[in-house]
Amino acid sequence: MSTPNTTVPLTTLTPKDFSSDQDVRWCPGCGDYAILNQVRRVLAALGSRREKTVFVSGIGCSSRFPYYMNTYGFHSIHGRAPAIASGVKIANPELDVWIVTGDGDGLSIGGNHLLHILRRNVNVNILLFNNRIYGLTKGQYSPTSEEGKKTKSSPMGAIDIPITPLSIALAAEASFVARAIDVDKNLADVLQAAAQHRGTSFVEIYQDCNIFNHFAFQYATDKATKDEHVIYLEHGKPLVFGKNRDKGIRLDGSHKPEVVQLGKGVTEDDLIFHDQNDENLAFLLSRLSYPQFPEPMGVFYKAEDDCYEDLLDGQVRQAVAAKGSPDLDAFLRSGETYTVGA
Amino acid sequence: MVAGTPTNAASQPAAAGASHTQRVELASAVIRFAGDSGDGMQLAGSQFTDTSAIAGNDVATLPDFPAEIRAPAGTVPGVSGFQINFSSQDIHTPGDEVNALIAMNPAAFKAHIQDVQNGGVVVVNDSEFDKVNLRKAGYPEGYNPLDDSKYQDRYKIYRVPISRLNDESLAGSGMTAKDTGRCKNMWALGLIYFLYDRSLDTTIKYLDDYFGKKKKLPQVAEANIKALKAGYYFGETAEIFPVRYHVGRAPVSPGTYRKVTGNEATAMGLVTASKLSGKTLIYCTYPITPASDILHDLATMRHMGVKTFQAEDEIAAVCAAIGVAFAGQLAVTGTSGPGLALKSEAIGLAVMTELPLVVIDVQRGGPSTGLPTKTEQSDLLQAMFGRNGDCPVIVLAAQSPADCFNAAIEAVRLAFKHMAPVLLLTDGYIANGSEPWKVPDASSFEKIPVSHPTDAASFKPYQRDEHLARPWAIPGTPGLEHRIGGLEKADITGAVSYDPANHHRMTELRAAKIVKVVDDVPPAQVYGPEQGDLLVVGWGGTYGSIRTAVERAQHEGRSVAGLHMRHLNPMPANLGQVFRRYKKVLVPELNTGQLRMLLRARYLIDARGLNKIYGKPFLVEEIHYAIEHMLSGQWGDRESIPPQPHALEASAPAQELHTGG
Ligand code: SF4
Hints:
heterodimer; A: eight-stranded mixed β-sheet; B: alpha/beta; Pyruvate-ferredoxin Oxidoreductase, domain 3; 3 domains; seven-stranded mixed β-sheet; 21% strand; globular
């Protein structure tokens, strides 16, 4: 900054202060609206500064997100947001960088970049809006669409096996892995935990595309059924679910998870206790899927680890300490030189 | 026997010692070390280069790496070569014909003998010319080219049992046979130092520093030095060479020099640009031949504040660089042709978002994977047009190894000033080739100005300055929060716009912005007569051979001038006028005529081409021939001609006659 006296007084910002002047153009009823509102709220609650916040996205419905935030934003090209965000963080580690992506953008065309930002543990927050469909291109099946799904591009049913974003993230050495639902209250808690984690935070958000894949997550959102199909993870607590909190998940004799009815000799002590620092457990939880199991929501896994951009800065400091930082003349003359006399 | 280009001075007997060896003064000499890729030929060659540069010669080198890294030992595809032209005069190329070849095995002999001039010196490692190696090289059973009178008559062949003599010189050192064998390149180098009257000091110091101090292997240093000296003393005492040669100092201006390859100079240029602009250099790349050495060099420069980012792929590399540019630092990505293809879409994003980005393309043989270790100039049209949409970028090309330094600085300067991607083209030949470089004083550089807006009231993301550049507002600046992206932007505000007239206007503005860069492009200048029969136009790494050929034709009284283009987009403003001052225009290129196509389209001139796609640089002779051919009126209607076969290659009997199965 060339003029040091331009610091803005630290007034408290409201969610509205994070809204840009652009009209939001998602389809009416799209799950993206709920997520947008929660993100604005969380940023305000965390005392984030607009000028320090950057939203980076790729291509897809979700990737319009940066336009609606009154922060710095980069709506880039298909699948590449993690790479662009990595560059931003390497250039300026002080910035608070959020990546907004979708199941197509993040897991299909940009799958490789997702793997690598996770393993590098760049300190960003990744929000993957999973609607199990291609929305912007008007309804083709995606990498998370269920087998047999009939869409415009799969009239006889999709024959690709879907992938589970959280399993992928864990396999890629992610240091923070969580899941939430667009319309669920606990989205705010998950977003807040993600924002506060140092390292790459990966959050899968179930998002309803009410135009091309409406009700894809109805089992998890419908008031009548949701308690039976969703299990909220709490660190140190047993895996209990159900409307009457009378069911749980335990490991059977061959260490496979099974749903059990509490009572009749089964107590909470027999259940799996959630440990958000246990990556094996996290992977096991990531494999639980509807309809066989209730699907876990909340923080699956969290680990403290160094961030890529800090390590890189550290190497620069270390090199300067070891070799000094020569001026240009000394630099250009370092190594083998020889002098030709007059 | 000949082992170089004679001077006008008469040869004189060597003054020193009891030797009967004659001493011959040469103006310049071209020698080539060739052996198996495990034989250390690159080291021998680069040591000879350093020693010659320090002795005051002008030097130019051409390393020739095997195309296959794991080619079987002893076979022709596994041969590695290193050519050095060292001279008492100003030179621009590594030389056409080889005056002296050092062949460490039959495969090296087979692969390189046809490049040796008639009557040239060939020193072979006779120990390795056994049945097994002759077979591996593909010679028929029972045949040894060294016994073939075709070669004996044509060349002065010295059969020296280098492997055996090297082993003997190191007997009793306590080293294994394998480790001893690895010193034979130094033994050979010692012998060639004797032949060309060079001091051993530079190499002894190098071996001491590298093996002794850096690798902490003093016994390896000692063995190599012993082998080096043994080779030298063998030359002295065995008196196998009837003459020794000497190449005197070149008239170089006084100062501090270093030898640089193009990739080294590129790396140093980028660091220099970082210091001149006060921006952190962040080099985002994915390993690719022949560009990787830029990454390797920059990775050792953390103490200069340099950050390197080895991305997961080419696309991630350029995208990370775009993120760097958005965040306000010096963003550079480097690659070669196939990688540039992968970066196309992202470069379009940088054009749309109007961010300063430097993309370096070290060109190699294409298309597809092509010839990774060989040179070519076939990415020019890709650099100019290889993106979707009307998507102009600034395009520059470096002309020699040392010139990469200036070209890199200029690329950064233009990117910052014009808020535009700059594509800098080098090639495998100048990237790996080396030449002496007079190290400039830092005080001679102009600062690279950079400014970032801070005033929220007046800020508009796509409001342009007098160069049509938009403001570089960076995240972290209060009040300037804005969104950019790949969708079409509304003029001035930068909001997303689908307005037809706006799209038309923005397309024109993006083009006009690049056209305006011409204000920073110096007028094209010719070397030679201001008007005449022929203008030879080149670009990029062919500068040295074209210039040498043009100057030779000028000495022969031809009315020919040369013009070398560094700025390919935009081109110098006066270029069209210059063309009109010559009757004919010849464009030699290492491609099928890409610059020729641009010049014909743009200036409506009848440019003709000399086009070579051999994966190798031009020989001076090839260009000289094309000049003569054109001036003699024999060219006819052909738009281009291939190089005429090298005289020696055409008549070389070796490969055609004796290639086995
Ligand atoms: S297509 Fe689906 S995901 Fe896209 S905006 Fe409409 S409802 Fe939302």
